[in-house]
Design a protein that fits this description.
Layout (H helix, E strand, L loop, with lengths): L1 H68 L4 H95 L1
Helix pairs in contact: 1-2
């Protein structure tokens, strides 16, 4: 009987270890979620970068208007205008490629997070099922232990009565 309880204790300990592993994976998923949020914040910085491109475009338009007003410095203004155009073009290209890279990375991270959420849900469901099974098994074992203790008590009573009868005979 003691071996049976030892085996049950070992089984409970292994299930407890499984539960701890599940909690650790939940913590890791939470950490990944924080990284995704941090990455999203970086994307907002990139949007501000796009705003700077718009400002450069406005500067370009202003310089273009100024070049029409000052025909004597037209050549110099064209050069400056070309520089600004080139700068705007480079900034826009840089921004587009960064945006595409971020979209791809966010998509990948979102898919990975979705898969991990599914995994967590499955694990939590299994953990709940294991917990219910464990409770049922513990109830059964408690009942069996109570029966065993009752049987031991009856045995001792009968043995005591038997000893008394032997002494009387």
């Amino acid at each position: 009987m003691e071996a049976y309880f030892s085996e049950m204790r070992n089984e409970l300990q292994s299930r407890d270890a499984l539960w701890r592993r599940i909690q650790l994976e939940c913590q890791q998923l939470h950490t990944e979620l924080l990284k995704i949020r941090e990455y999203k914040d970086m994307q907002e910085v990139k949007i501000k970068h796009q705003s700077s491109c718009i400002q450069l475009t406005e500067q370009l338009q202003n310089k273009n208007a100024a070049s029409l007003l000052l025909p004597q410095s037209q050549e110099r203004q064209r050069e400056e205008l070309n520089k600004i155009r080139n700068r705007v073009y480079r900034e826009e290209q840089s921004h587009r490629s960064e945006q595409e890279r971020m979209k791809t990375e966010i998509s990948d991270l979102t898919e990975e997070l979705h898969q991990k959420e599914i995994t967590i849900a499955t694990i939590m469901e299994k953990a709940g099922l294991l917990e219910r099974q464990l409770k049922m098994e513990l109830e059964i074992k408690d009942k069996l232990l109570a029966k065993q203790q009752l049987s031991d008590f009856r045995y001792k009573v009968i043995k005591s009565e038997n000893t008394q009868l032997k002494e009387m005979v």
